[in-house]
Automatic annotation (TrEMBL):
InterPro entries linked: SET_dom_sf, SETD3_SETD6_MTase
CDD domains: SET_LSMT
Listed GO MF terms: protein-lysine N-methyltransferase activity
PANTHER family: SET DOMAIN-CONTAINING PROTEIN, UNCHARACTERIZED PUTATIVE METHYLTRANSFERASE
SUPFAM superfamilies in the record: SET domain
Protein name according to UniProt: SET domain-containing protein
């Protein structure tokens, strides 16, 4: 009872804080969802214009706000000018410092945020071991190591230095404070479209500060690293914004071009994710929609089914379980946006025959050594599950046909059902290339550009030459090998897909940190009979099992596609 009263008191304090800072809850309210999801936004009353929530962007935590902060702004600008910190680091540093400050003005907001997160960075060693064999395991282990090193080498001393400006803190900074700030930033951050004039105002009226500020949005991220860094970094901070829109007046503002700035928007960031969102967020630059210039607002998607007291959700984007678990700490069973990452290790190229020549060809193709295979591709493969092919297949076929400029190689019959990206297949063709094929490629490219090398061949021309010289069978065989290796690695650590399915069937979720075995029924009389046993499984472990089972399922299905394509290619002499 006392805990419920404390939660309500924090919520009341947060509502007052929002009101003082100009936030308007016009058709919604913030309340607790459950122990797993935390707080969310719910419909309170119907609004004629669909505007449910309005937040002035002056309240957002952005690099600009940190650099202008009255307490630590001056120190941060100095560190920024010296290249000690970048824009994302600034925000995570700010969150860490404000969490420890005695009288932080952000306390009502921070009190509403989780004290720990469900992403793997917060898992125990036992829980992380459930991810062994997956891309997420390697990324998590590497990221934890990087964050701990960053904390010890830089963050701890910086936070202590900044806290002295406010008379210190009631307790010492620890790694968990930095980990918390890092998780808040990545789980709740948005990519906000703003006019340049709003992003780059004159700070303290000085030229140096202005140029330093502009530099903040141009520095490349240093915080997020690891195997998932490339894929998540490109999409992660689009988070809620993938399904958002920019008010047309803002986009065409006379104040200048629109820039995308990362930041936290208190209020909006309490929207939870759903595959069928009830709302989107938008930007009102002029105030013509909300009456509040430079504001972010939550707009109802116009669903007639949305009822009073029902949760208002948004979409974080079309994200697979790997990304959802890594960034936000949750997964979706049977996620239609799930994907499998396949990559050829860059270091392994040095071990293949004619590695130097092949490396040059890969460079000429602007080759990516990895690719994402969305689950949706399987709907158009050799073994579709009730989905009709559309115009995307015709476009793909025409794209491949354009490669055959000499007509030396007959176009294969299976192109309509080939679901693997041709750019990645070209990488595999190049790596698997035999000596005579390498000579053919060199000859064709020389004929194309001239013996004197008057110009460099385009990446498309190089891929075309590689395809005509090599065909598909070598690439398909290498792809089959990669997928088999992936499956072996997955099963070596956690068993088969069927074993994960069986475990999930007999699992009972518990909010406890550890999982344990419970025998529900021992009436069978057979000591070795496991069919009646059920498991209490922590939510972290349950998420790991669902994720890795999905990876095994996708590996199995894409392997079936690759093996069938290989058989067809060999039968057609391709």
């Amino acid at each position: 009872m006392a805990n419920a009263e404390e939660e309500e008191a924090k919520l009341d304090c947060f509502r007052q804080w929002l009101q003082v800072n100009g936030v308007e809850l016009r058709g919604c309210k913030i309340k607790d969802c459950d122990s797993n999801k935390g707080f969310g936004i719910f419909l309170a009353n119907d609004v004629s214009d669909g505007v449910l929530l309005v937040v002035p962007l002056a309240l957002a935590i952005t690099p600009m706000r940190v650099l202008q902060d009255p307490l630590i702004g001056s120190e941060c600008r100095e560190m920024f000018a010296e290249g000690e910190v970048d824009d994302r680091f600034l925000m995570i540093l700010f969150l860490t410092v404000e969490r420890l400050r005695k009288n932080s003005s952000w306390k009502p907001y921070f009190d509403m945020l989780p004290i720990s997160f469900g992403n793997p960075l917060w898992f125990s060693d036992d829980e992380i071991s459930e991810l062994k064999g997956t891309t997420l395991y390697r990324a998590t282990v590497l990221q934890r190591k990087n964050l701990l090193s960053l904390y010890e080498d830089k963050v701890k001393s910086l936070v202590e230095k900044l806290l002295t400006l406010d008379g210190g803190s009631d307790r010492e900074v620890c790694f968990e404070d930095f980990l918390w700030a890092n998780s808040v930033f990545w789980a709740r951050g948005l990519n906000i479209p703003l006019p340049r004039s709003y992003v780059f105002p004159q700070i303290q009226g000085t030229k140096d500060d202005s140029s330093s500020t502009e530099k903040s949005s141009e520095i490349s991220p240093k915080i997020f690293s690891g195997e998932l860094a490339k894929g998540v970094d490109e999409k992660g901070l689009q988070a809620h914004g993938l399904n958002s829109q920019v008010n047309e007046e803002t986009a065409s503002s006379t104040q200048g071009e629109t820039l995308w700035v990362e930041g936290l928007v208190p209020g909006i960031d309490f929207c939870n994710h759903d595959l069928k969102p009830a709302a989107t967020w938008e930007i009102d630059g002029t105030g013509s929609i909300t009456g509040v210039p430079f504001s972010m607002y939550l707009l109802s998607a116009g669903q007639s089914s949305l009822q009073i007291n029902k949760e208002i959700t948004i979409s974080y984007g079309n994200k697979g379980n790997e990304e959802l678990l890594y960034l936000y700490g949750f997964i979706i069973e049977n996620n239609p946006d799930d994907y499998l990452m396949v990559h050829y290790p860059v270091e392994a190229i040095q071990g293949v025959p004619f590695s130097d020549s092949k490396a040059q060809l890969l460079e000429a193709q602007n080759a990516e050594m990895r690719c994402l295979l969305p689950k949706s591709l399987l709907d158009h493969g050799f073994f579709p599950e009730g989905v009709q092919k559309g115009e995307d297949e015709k476009c793909k076929r025409d794209h491949v046909c354009s490669y055959s400029w000499s007509g030396q190689r007959k176009m294969p019959s299976y192109l309509d059902n080939l679901i693997f990206p041709d750019n990645f297949l070209s990488v595999l063709r190049t790596i698997a290339m035999q000596e005579d094929e390498l000579y053919k490629v060199s000859t064709m490219l020389e004929e194309l550009v001239g013996t004197e090398g008057e110009r460099q061949p385009t990446d498309t021309e190089v891929r075309a030459a590689v395809w005509e010289a090599c065909g598909d069978s070598g690439a398909f065989q290498l792809l089959v090998d990669l997928l088999n290796m992936r499956m072996t690695e997955l099963e070596e650590h956690s068993g088969t897909e069927d074993s994960d399915t069986d475990l999930l069937k007999r699992a009972d979720l518990t909010e406890a940190a550890d999982s344990l075995l419970v025998v529900k029924d021992d009436k069978s009389g057979e000591e070795d009979d496991k069919s009646t046993e059920r498991y209490l499984v922590s939510r972290h472990k349950w998420s790991c099992i669902v994720y890795r089972r999905g990876q095994k399922q996708l590996t199995r299905l894409f392997l079936r596609e690759a093996e069938y394509a290989l058989r067809l290619a060999l039968s057609e002499g391709n």
